[in-house]
Amino acid sequence: LQLAPHYALARNNLAVTLVQQGRPQEALAAFQDAIRADPALMVPRLNLGLLLFTQDRLQPALRTLLHQLRP
Question: What is the pTM of this model?
Answer without folding.
Answer: 0.86
